[in-house]
Amino acid sequence: MTFFALYLGAGAIAGLMAGLLGIGGGMVIVPMLTYTFIAHGIPHEYVLHMALGTSLASIIFTSLSSVRAHHQRGAVNWQAVTRITPGILAGTFIGAWIAAQLSTNFLKIFFACFLLYVATQMLVGLKPKATRTLPGAVGMFGAGGTIGIFSSLVGIGGGTLSVPFLSWCNTEMRKAIATSSAIGFPIAIAGTAGYIVNGTGIDIASPHLGYIHLTGLLGIVLASVCTAPIGARMTHTLPVDKLKKIFSILLYVVGTKMLIGGL
User: Fold this and answer.
1) Where are the alpha helices (DSSP H) in 102-208?
2) What is the dihedral of CA 87, 91, 94, 95, to 10 degrees?
3) Cα(212)–Cα(155) distance, rounded to whole angstroms?
């Protein structure tokens, strides 16, 4: 019951962050799952892989809940979502295969460094100048592939990459956040498939499907589908930039702990 409460807490926070800030809920889910799985006795070599896979699986539901709220406000650029999806699907599936070949320690360091990068980006307000429009088919496939690979390696819905990309292509920030939520769905689908396929045959006592921890997924989903719409509504009323700076401090703490705390 204690572990399930942690899964519920991770899901609640992740749902809010996904809807409110347009960032991947995995930045909350992955660290919490990592330490919970360790306490659960998951073998060391599978800890990060299961945290990443379970995080991506949960984003299937978080994304649907969040994007519905954004769509009701007419904020999603569905044309951009359709054009970038082929690259997203290919890149995310490939990224899951790459992750399966890497060690837990490497993935931990990679994820921690990514957290510190995102925290810095949020704290100083780094935003690419909007100097162009969305690229053609080849450019969108390349952008989608890049976003997909990195999203799969860090277990997120891609918001930390797709929001800056859309902003760079002259998409207004709130619409970029909303569109990023929709892009998170194909990322989650392809990433989940990849982690299931590449985790086939692993020996873990807990209920699992490949690298997807089913009990953890249930707890996260139950909470996140409730809080993601709340976060999406709050996007249109709260000072998002100020909230991002506050959240960045938390990311610094978590990223530093993962780097120096060990597993």
Assistant:
1) 104-124, 137-154, 159-168, 173-198
2) -170
3) 12
* Cα angle for residues 10, 12, 15 (degrees, 5° grid): 105
Residue 218 in tokens: 């249930």
**In whole angstroms, what is the distance from residue 192 CA to residue 210 CA?**
9
212 beta partners? 209
Beta bridge partners of 213: 208
Q: How far apart are CA 120 and CA 114, in angstroms?
A: 10
Chain centroid to Cα 178, Å, comes to 14
Domain that holds residue 75: 2-261
Q: Which helix (H) or strand (E) holds 208?
A: strand 208-209
Band of the pLDDT at 130, cuts 50, 70, 90?
A: low
Which of 45, 10, 6 has the alpha carbon at shortest distance from 26? 10
pLDDT of residue 18: 67
pLDDT average, residue stretch 87-114:
91
Q: Give the C-alpha separation, 16 to 235, whole Å.
A: 10
pLDDT at 17 over 90: no
Query: Strand pairing partners for 66?
Result: none
Give residue for tokens 């997924």: 217
Angstrom distance (rounded) from CA 178 to CA 47 = 31
Domain count, the chain: 1
Dihedrals φ, ψ of 212, to 5°?
Answer: -100, 120
